[in-house]
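ERR on first pass: missing label on line 2. Operator R.T. fixed the label and resubmitted. Corrected input:
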Amino acid sequence: MTTEELLARRERLLGVGAALFYEQPLQIVRGEGVWLFDADGNRYLDLYNNVPCVGHANPHVVEAMARQAATLNVHSRYLHEGILDYAERLTALHAAPITTAVFTCTGTEANEVALMMARVATGGRGIITTDAAYHGNSAEVRKLSRLGDRAARELPLDPEVRAIPVPQHYRPIARGLSEAELCERYLAELRTQIDGFRGDGIPFAGMLLCPLLANEGLPDIPRGFMAGAAQIVREAGGLFICDEVQAGFGRSGRWWGYEVMDCVPDIVVMGKPMGNGLPLAGVVARGELVNAFRRETRYFNTFASSPLQAAVGMAVIDVIEQEDLLARVGDVGEYMRTELRAMQDGCEPMADVRGHGLFIGVEWVSDRETEAPDVAGAQAVVEGMKRRGVLMGKAGAHGNVLKMRPPLVFEREHADRFLEAFRETIHEVHARGSA
Amino acid sequence: MTTEELLARRERLLGVGAALFYEQPLQIVRGEGVWLFDADGNRYLDLYNNVPCVGHANPHVVEAMARQAATLNVHSRYLHEGILDYAERLTALHAAPITTAVFTCTGTEANEVALMMARVATGGRGIITTDAAYHGNSAEVRKLSRLGDRAARELPLDPEVRAIPVPQHYRPIARGLSEAELCERYLAELRTQIDGFRGDGIPFAGMLLCPLLANEGLPDIPRGFMAGAAQIVREAGGLFICDEVQAGFGRSGRWWGYEVMDCVPDIVVMGKPMGNGLPLAGVVARGELVNAFRRETRYFNTFASSPLQAAVGMAVIDVIEQEDLLARVGDVGEYMRTELRAMQDGCEPMADVRGHGLFIGVEWVSDRETEAPDVAGAQAVVEGMKRRGVLMGKAGAHGNVLKMRPPLVFEREHADRFLEAFRETIHEVHARGSA
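pass 2 clean. output:
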């Protein structure tokens, strides 16, 4: 079947407008480690997919999944040691006050739980996020999505949700400030929004954000912002919620993005890489927060807290630990950023290279002076990389931030292959752009 | 580890109040077909679990899951024939106007999609349900849950949600009416609620309900109610949505509960048995409804529409078709209802035996004259059946309806085993009750 026939069939069966990547969409049929293969047998180095964190079709994970599915997979209203072992291992990876878990199937569901939990615990309703956030697809969680969700941009802001500008060094809210002053300016924005809730008579429940601000474009965040924000939120009676759906499970070279940011959240949301592709997500928090949530909501999720989720989640942690992936992620990521920064001199559009571990962002601009986002140029890089057999994406409020986010089993030899293709591509795109 | 130690560990790791079945919870370690096994090696005949519809640990499903997980499991922004093949096969099982699918991971997510779809298509907001419904655990879907969700009973009714009384022959809204008159009385309740929205200036979006009213206690519904309700809803500009999360996939002896009810919904929600335990759910509808939904929301779900969901969903349909389960479900279910009805004479509390296919409800009352629900008695039956190695549950607005809902691979010999244990148990419970 040709791509055109497949596309027509897809529109008929899944509807018009189900999102696809690339001008000529890829038909991927097989995956292995950091590689994806299309229907014509072409091989692509994957710097896009964070969900298969321990590699596409990881045999240890597949074996754990098959073994558990062949043994038992039921809901959580019977006792099962597997889910307790997993909850114990997972919470032990978190900061000390965090002891207790609520499992769900998707990050959206986990953010639903986090919002309910914060609202139950505080008696408040108001939630603060950033003005370029995206946290999921349910009616309630979509209220938190602004620029990160193009469809939501046109919706009126819900009265229970307020947003602060994205805290960042590049395109900062004010110029010529020291790092400490810039941080303070963003924290002042947070105080303003909390005061706004107070003024409107909406009791404050908390702040929810990705500790690395992934959808916001992975900015360099002024040092101290996250810890300062957590303190301000708590002083105002709210809870500080980190959405680690993208940042967590070793992506940054640490287990959790909040560790990189030197803060400890009250509630942590996890998802995407947690089951290497099996729908597995969840929330961890202090016991009393989970207890209050369960008492109030009697939350039950048919497919969650299952023996299958537990077995697969365990296997993912096994591989991350046994292959010492955190150290490798830190090394390879740092190497890539160093090499990318060395390309900036010869490439005007590469205005800013940043990130943590194997989560790398590159601002692609049409003019470094005006910092004007070049979305078309960024898209041309993504398409050029695809032609060279490398998959990557874009992110950020303007959609002009090149995003590299490979499976965590990405090695230095893969980085070199990426860098070679990237050098060729930016030369081509930049030359075309300035011609 | 003793049950007490496990319980303490569970409260610490999953929180206090995570729901468990039975006075002494079961520790289930293995499943096979219609059987579950506890940690002490005891075997239980499963008449509770509808999710593993083709049997616990079905080898065909496990093999499909393992094979696909070892090959490819990525998100849906690449083309993949597997998900199109599955969407084609699934929509072909539905009534003719239904052509197009939106996949999700859970029934809650599918109901979120259905609500958004109905609201986008109609421009309305108001949704009608029953006063004993339960449709899921997200903030938006919880608004539809009344008696079906004990925690939600205390919440104020959302202005965008209205409920009608459960249409039923047992405990009817008025006595001494013909079937047609009773049906008309319930339809009048629906018209009243639609008028109520109009009066409050809330544009009407539609009605969402389980075609078998499973959480409502699986009542005998006055003939013609569902088709009549669908017509009234459409005439008022709304859409008629069937939540087939419990009723679908052969449970009733037909593929879909709406077939038993002689109506064709505009939007169908599916879940639980769809992936035999893999998180897989979704919505099907006419193409133009899905297109409008996608255009408006740009809906994307990371783990859904995946090659893994497709492979497992296909395997479930394979087994249902290859083992001719629909016919068997109809036969065995009818046999069980006949045998249960034969027990009613000698057992005052068994006031009403009803259901469709392998979904059976028995009203357990303290007095047939007053029809007073006997929740404690029903619970005693459930516990007594457990002691005899049979698992079943309770449902309904009052929690007094005994619920039998085994995997679809349940055979006549299993039915006989169940009936024997049931005879002993009701004798014991009834004798105790009248002593």
